[in-house]
Amino acid sequence: MRNRVIIGGQWGDEGKGKIVDALSRDVDWVLRYQGGANAGHTIHIGQEKHVLHLIPSGILHQGVRCLLGGGMVVDPWALRDEIIGLEERGFQVRDRLFVAANATLLMPYHMRMDELREAKLSRHNIGTTGRGIGPAYLDKVQRTGLRMGDLLLSADRLERKVIEKILSANEVLSNTYQAEPMPARLLAEELVVLAQTLAPLVVDAHVALAGVRAGSESALFEGAQGTLLDIDHGTFPYVTSSNTTVGGALTGTGLPPRALGEIHGVFKAYCTRVGNGPFPSELLGEPGDRLREAGGEFGATTGRARRCGWFDAVASRFAVDINGMTGVMITKLDVLDTAATVPVAVAYDLDGEQLDVYPTVAEMLPRCRPVYREFPGWGQPLTGCRALTDLPPAARRYLEFLEQILGTPVVGVSVGRDREQMIWTPGGVTV
Ligand code: IMP
To answer: Is 0.90 surpassed by the pTM of this model?
Structure first.
């Protein structure tokens, strides 16, 4: 089994959870490497819907080991609840779920700061998930954050350390935001109790992943969010605070580049975005509402309505390039079943000039207007298709065009939310 990195090619919500679930049956490890509980990976098994925020989607397969890598920001309260939720549904979790000691602890004050900062930015806000992600990463880069490894300290030392952190967070809360302080002793005591549950999961990732490094164990890297939300390469400042692109898989696990294997990008057959920021191919009004309804485009983490639009090949080519994608998967193709035509943004118009390359200068993208090429719709349901040959010619032509314009083979197509509703095309879709 070759290792594989699964990366979102757009603004997140591409359906990575389903893909990781489908591919993790036969791997030794599934590794999350960035982000935190801002992610919402939804997997449908039969009538049951599972939404995972922190724990890798591979946990739904018995025997697969899962790691929350050092590049993540981990809310220990949310992690405990997610473990309990899985156990209540009959999944045995504890001896195969691990958290890297160098992962950053995301504390309740991070969430409070996230909320206050967004409120202060008012209509210029980012539209975050409110999970405290930015403030937690800020604590990491300014070298003040707590880490998962701190949960291994004695109860006394942990309590003292946590109280100290909360007191300094309280200064920020009152000085910057004129907000109420957080109850330092109460939270520290709660964390000490949580540590008893979570400390057994804490590992030195370098040791735990020795088999992956040596090539004797296989790994699937589960990206969260998407390329265009990357802190360095995304639509800054409307981004998340981690590297959602391929570099994050290295720094967020401590594994070397040779461990990555295939780099597979996941793209929706159209495009969505939650939160603010530029979105050139966005459909406003009725057409956008129709796509949102057809695709059930409401956030798994916050329930927010997602902004919807057509596939943006300019931005997607950028995602292929920046990650070195060796294959792409197209999800939710069935959502377009009733569309009379399916447009794709193949270039941008910027002040009357045609742009074929995605602009990374932040102020240019909001001024870009999409130049569309239209494809005929197929007007029939795809949800029962299980092979490329089951697809109507118009749907195949659409996929062939995506393969051609992205310059990368389409290696998988999802035609419904269930595990089985997949067409695997390892050799690409162009015959
Ligand atoms: P944060 O990661 O909560 O700080 O949010 C920053 C931006 O990333 C906002 O636009 C969020 O809507 C977006 N975002 C964060 N996580 C996800 C996700 O899992 N899917 C889609 N968008 C996300």
So the answer is: yes
